[in-house]
Amino acid sequence: MARIADPLIVGRVIGDILDSFSATVTMAVTYNNNQVYNGHELFPSRVTSKPKVEIHGGDMRSFFTLVMIDPDVPGPSDPYLREHLHWIVTDIPGTTDATFGREVVSYEIPRPYIGIHRFVFVLFKQKRRNTVSPPNSRDGFNTRSFAAENELGLPVAAVFFNAQRETAARRR
Predict the structure, then answer these.
(1) What gap in Å lies between CA 29 and CA 146, rounded to an integer?
(2) Residue 5 has what pLDDT?
(3) Which pTM was predicted?
(4) How far apart are CA 147 and CA 130, in angstroms?
(5) Residue numbers in the chain where pLDDT is lower than 50
(6) Between the CA of residue 89 and those of 3, 36, 80, 92, 159, what are the distances in Å?
(7) Which residues belong to the signal peptide in this entry (predicted)?
(8) CA 68 to CA 58: how far, in whole Å?
(9) Strands (E), the chain
């Protein structure tokens, strides 16, 4: 029987950004009715507005923090600026979506310049409401350190897509 490889491991999300974890809730990320699947490519021109992020499997007494990062800055062959923060929403009630949370770092459009970048959405369960502090900068962000500083523990869900710079020919 063939073993199915975890796309978060194959895509080096687990390892480069996150420690190994077991998903305990389901997170659906959708841009203009296009759901994000691990490792699929999306064009930057299609992800210019905030995605809809739905959480299933929690309850209304649970609160979650959503983090979106690019770990491949400036380029995947030498990501010495890893990680760049694109978005943080906190206090998202379980069984709802990110619009019910508190945006503490506004959504920044993915703009990869060199190579294929991974854009990773990570969901953490909070211990209490209003306990997550935003970082000082988008640059040099570290998901593991952010989780430790805010007592978030391991992620409860994650998904990522790939994107690369669009040429004029690709946009047609």
Answers:
(1) 21
(2) 72
(3) 0.93
(4) 14
(5) 1-2, 172
(6) 35, 18, 26, 7, 16
(7) none
(8) 20
(9) 26-31, 34-35, 52-56, 63-70, 84-93, 102-105, 116-126, 157-164
Kindly give the residue spans of alpha helices, DSSP state H, lying in the chain.
7-10, 13-16, 143-149, 168-171
Calpha distance 120→161 (Å, rounded): 7
What is the rounded distance in angstroms from the CA atom of residue 20 to the CA atom of residue 4? 16
Q: Are 68 and 32 in contact (CB under 8 A)?
A: no
What's the one-letter identity of residue 22?
Answer: S
Report DSSP state, residue 98. Answer: G
Give the span between the Cα atoms of 155 and 66, in whole angstroms.
10
3-class SS at 13? helix
Distances (CA, A) of 79 to 37, 60, 111, 136: 23, 38, 15, 20
The Cα diameter of the chain in Å comes to 49
Residue 1: per-residue pLDDT: 46
- Please give the helix or strand (H or E) that residue 166 lies within, else none: none
* Cross-strand bridge partners of residue 41: 162
Q: What is the secondary structure of 113-139 as a DSSP string? A: -SSEEEEEEEEEEESSTT-PPPPS-ST
State the Cα–Cα distance between residues 81 and 140, nearest whole angstrom. 6
Q: Quote the distance between the C-alpha of residue 156 and its chain's center.
A: 12
